[in-house]
Amino acid sequence: MAASFVQGRIRKENLSVLVETSCVHCQQPMSFTLSSEMELTDRSPGSDPMVFMPDIDWDNFREPTIIDAF
């Protein structure tokens, strides 16, 4: 799920990915769209996926890309 975030930062574009999966607890199918700004949209009714936002100080970030920082 980090693809939209990482690629969006590298390309300096607003990207999104469609995630189609199922709940690990009840196996109910779910889908949602995740943007490079970590915004969830188009969620399946009743789903509430948790999204981790990396804690990066973008104002002081100086590497050419997020990949170069690692």
Report on this model:
With 70 residues, the protein is α+β, with helices and mostly antiparallel strands. It has one domain (1-70). Helices cover 14% and strands 23% of the residues. The chain is built from one helix and three strands, in the order H-E-E-E. It has one helix at 2-11; strands at 16-22, 29-35, 40-41. The chain has a three-stranded antiparallel beta sheet, covered by helices on one side. Strand 2 (29-35) and strand 3 (40-41) form a beta hairpin. It is elongated and about 45 Å long. 6% of the residues are buried. The mean pLDDT is 77.
Features:
single chain, 70 residues, alpha+beta, 3-stranded antiparallel sheet, 3 strands, 23% strand, elongated
Question: pLDDT below 50 for ≥5 consecutive residues: which ranges?
Answer: none
What's the rounded overall pLDDT mean?
77
Strand content: 15-25%
Helical residue percent band: 10-25%
